[in-house]
Amino acid sequence: MDPEVVSNFLSEQREHAPEDLQQSFLTIEDYWDRKLWHQLTDVLVEYFNTAASAPQRLPLFRHFILTFSEKINQLKFVSLGLLAATQCSDDQERLSFLTDLTSKVNKPASQDAYVYALVAASDVKLRLQDLADARKDLDTAESILDSFDSVETEVHAAFYRTNASYFQAKADFGAYYKNALLYLACIDLKTLSLEDAQSRAYDLSIAALVSDSIYNFGELLLHPILDSLNNSQHSWLRDLLFAFNRGDLNAYNVLESNISKAPLLDEHKTFLWQKISLSALTEAVFRRPPHDRAMTFQTISQETKVQPHEIEILVMKALSLGLLKGSIDQVAEVARINWVQPKVLDMKQIDNMRLRLKDWDSSVNQLGNWIEGVGKDVWAA
Question: What pTM was computed for the model?
């Protein structure tokens, strides 16, 4: 590109820039003139990340950055393109822009940048309700990511965020839950606004509750994102999750009136009762010592508030889901449990475990004293 043309273009853009940003254009022109591509890229990224640069991102990208795009880091090139794409007039224009950007970086040496751009394009397709094409792009991106030994976290974060959005659109709550948590693992939570953090915590909580494949909320309960619901209009949802985790039927009954506030929970109200019943069952088993886990159907009914004639189905469901291991004596109406799925414990549950350990310690001491008492002659010999 003719240096004079570049100089004139940058001068024109400088005049349109806010006064406090005009110095950046002198630096940009200086680095471009000296072909200091790395430094030039960093200045451009910094400038594009300034909110006031918004009106100039597209012109700078189309008439300046594209002229030396092959000389700079391709991942940063895509980052600049994504920031420029935010200024497109609508999603159709944005998709066209991102499709061109994707094709430019689809080279063997820049597959990470290709994935980054491809995922961004699939995100726009999701907004345009083109779920089939979005899934195709995401599958392509996933296969490439799986072939990498390592990749920048921003690429993984973009993939998991968009993949989660796809599964949310498809109402696949289990897959959404998994990908949303993976996305949060790739970012610094401090970069999220309070509103965004609360929105993600809300969606994750709903997904955890209504999914028929998630019965252990440990990862979410321990995640700081959930704390964003404290002192908010959705604080009851956090309490509901903890009630489910400890199988607390009384707490569920108190919080049940809030379920109508969340349409998805209201739709799955019957399923939620089945789920809390399973949680109450596993909690009842967990509270018992290992040698006392043969429970009659009547005892289980009292613990779970499930009708006696439905207990066998409840236990079979828990066994099939891997929440429990054991057997059922249909004639004697007894469930013999020898294993319960581990889960995150709250302070009350930890205190119960402490008491059980004290009982176990006491039993061991009593056994030791008994052995010592009846075996005096043996020990003396």
Answer: 0.88
